[in-house]
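Re: the request from the purification team.
They wanted to know what the chain is likely to look like in 3D before they choose a buffer screen. I agreed to run a prediction and write the result into the notebook, where they can find it.
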Amino acid sequence: MKLNPNDALAILGYLKDEGIVSEEQIDQAITKTPSEDLKASTLYLHLIMCVEASDDYDGCRCGYELEERKDNTWTLEHHLRWVMKTERSINELKTTPQEFLKETAEFNAMFHAMRVASPIVIFLFRYYWKKVFKMEQDKEDRIADDQ
């Protein structure tokens, strides 16, 4: 479907007036950056599940963490991949970005508390999830390579 600019603006105005889309959603569509809730959820998901993260920032192999040093972080490859993983998780769980953020923040707090309380428990937990998530990442990489 092709729209002239005036019709597109009229439709966008209608969608906004009806509450179907918000000003923030319009801004995101224009700038193609994730919402603040999605950014925060992505950060938490990455903190919990990244298989390449390192406590040694200079020795880090994680592309997401390395991108943190650059400008326009949320438009870069690894951040976009993690945003897509977060969005897919939200969709699969049939929840909202706000609810997902709340739950991941609570889980991250619990995760941090366990880390302080029991290094063995946290080690086993991270090992298990890294193994599971690594299998998922490998699967995604194979799919991307095939395309």
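For the purification team: The longest helix spans residues 119-146.
Please add any questions underneath this entry.
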